[in-house]
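Attaching the record inline, Q. Sequence:
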Amino acid sequence: NDVKTNNDLAEEVARVVGYDNIKSSQINIPTKDNQSYKDIENKLRYFLIDNGFYEVINSPFVSTHSENSIKVDNPLDSNREYLRESITESLIENLLYNERRQKDSVKLFEISDIYLLNKVKNKKRKLSIVASGKVGLNYEDFSKKINKKYLTQMFKEVLPNMDLKFNSVSRDLLDTKVKNEIVSMEVDLDDFSNEIFSYKKISSSPKAFNKYIQISDL
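Structure, as predicted:
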């Protein structure tokens, strides 16, 4: 009664013959030649961290929307019921938050999925970066300002044949008194060439973390 498919029939045959009497054979799983998203992400992540950037993870739900936005049927927050179409807007909010706390150099990036209604392939994985202020806080970079030329040269070192477009974000409609130029870029991970795999990371993941010890109530 329990034999309903070819799989069930094959199992009964194998049981009657005896599993120990069936000769074993090696299973060869074909490997893909192309690199995965994770490989690209990790290379880009270490490259940016080595250049003083900090990774950010923002909520994918926003209040602003357009005709191409995807609305969530049962949102956790009624004020944020749409999936964001751009990562850059979230990073600009992060940048302004840090500037209001007297951060002289703000360099942020985020890797996330974007969803749109009007695309055949409506899901895209993107990298977005936003930066402003001083290039660094060391004695060599303290007097240098972040601009499109600085970011272009930084990426040209690892992607010499890739033409990345950097944009200047206007501060006119932003709640800020800082005058430093804001530079942003948002690009599909599909657009990155294999040149990024030649980058040798400098940073390394921490080998140990400080263990949390609960403080006594006494």
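The two ends are 67 Å apart (CA to CA). The first strand starts at residue 54 and ends at 55.

More tomorrow.
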